[in-house]
Amino acid sequence: MSARPMQAQDKLAFLLSLVPFLIEHDGVSVTDAAARFGVTPEEMRTAVRLIAISGVPGESRQYGPDDLFDIDWDEFEEDDRISITHHVAIDDSPRFSSREAAALIAGLQYLSSLPENADRAALASLTAKLASGSTGGPAAVAVSADGGDARVAPLREALLARRRVSFDYRSAQGDRERRLVDPLRIDSENQSWYLRGWDHSRGAVRIFRLDRMSALTVTDEDSSTVAADVQLSDALFETSPDNLTIRVELPESALTLLGEYLPDGTRTAPGSSADLVIATLRVGHFHGLKRLIALLSGVATVLDPPEARAAVADWAQRGLDQYTHTASSTDAASSDAASSSSADK
């Protein structure tokens, strides 16, 4: 028995779901169909009779024989089974192209490889529907479950088993510290992998780059914090009012390269020339700013605050000094070799 009488919107959703089900399960019994949708057999029979007088009018705006659904009435009335013998409009719905289906299937394969989506039957079912519902057979694609980092596999196992992990971590500033973490989620961005976890030494959620981890150990301790206990944003990195505010000048066409460094609703100001704009960024520390400017070498210029300009200039100068030192050493070695050669002669 249905738990409550269906409202109008419930009936519409029920009928829209029922038609594809009946087409896919040809000859299903009324009892089985009713159980599948949680309605009574009589409610199912009423719905089938309604479907049988539904359709799409033709070009004349009149209903012809081919414009209505039809069922096998003998089988329905005598055997209490439902078989749709004619359907309309279903095949006219938009369908993905083979390339679109292949792209979506690749995305689903990637999602299936993530720990939080492991063994998800819904993803497998959707993949199968995409493969069969495209305009042509989708191109064969395969997304490896291997994250390209040896630390992904043990972290994935720890996350699924809800086990705490410990590892030595090198921060962006170069500091090293042993961390004890409850894994919450594994993400990838721009070919880098990250672990979001509850850091027991900080008492908060922290993000760790896998390539900065060493001596990773999956402990025998159960995690005290899981993903359901905290609110994890879909965005891997989010700006905070506590971040440093930096103004940079760059071509307007390069704004998209700043990604999540730009706060929502950012407005730009005219730059020093017609093709340049000034944008305000938020960064957690100057080290992160140096890394960003290195990626935008020759494209972005830091304007202020002065401390930011000094930090970037000092970092660039130290890098240049390394090249100068290497070049001087090479010249000295060459000079020594030449002198030795002359002496031998």
Describe the protein's topology.
Layout: H1 8-24, E1 28-29, H2 30-37, H3 41-51, E2 70-71, H4 73-79, E3 81-82, E4 84-86, H5 98-113, H6 121-133, H7 152-161, E5 163-170, E6 176-189, E7 192-199, E8 204-209, E9 213-222, E10 244-251, E11 269-270, E12 276-283, H8 286-295, E13 301-304, H9 306-344
Antiparallel strand pairs: 1-3, 2-4, 5-6, 5-9, 6-7, 7-8, 10-12, 10-13, 11-12
Biased composition (Low complexity): 326-345
Domain WCX: 245-318
Region (Disordered): 325-345
Overview of the molecule:
The chain is α+β, with helices and mostly antiparallel strands and 345 residues long. The chain folds into four domains: 8-92, Arc Repressor Mutant, subunit A (Orthogonal Bundle); 95-145; 152-229, Roll (SH3 type barrels), CATH 2.30.30; 237-345, Alpha-Beta Plaits (2-Layer Sandwich). The protein has nine helices and 13 strands. The protein has helices at residues 8-24, 30-37, 41-51, 73-79, 98-113, 121-133, 152-161, 286-295, 306-344, and strands at 28-29, 70-71, 81-82, 84-86, 163-170, 176-189, 192-199, 204-209, 213-222, 244-251, 269-270, 276-283, 301-304. Helix 2 (30-37) packs across helix 3 (41-51) and helix 5 packs antiparallel against helix 6.
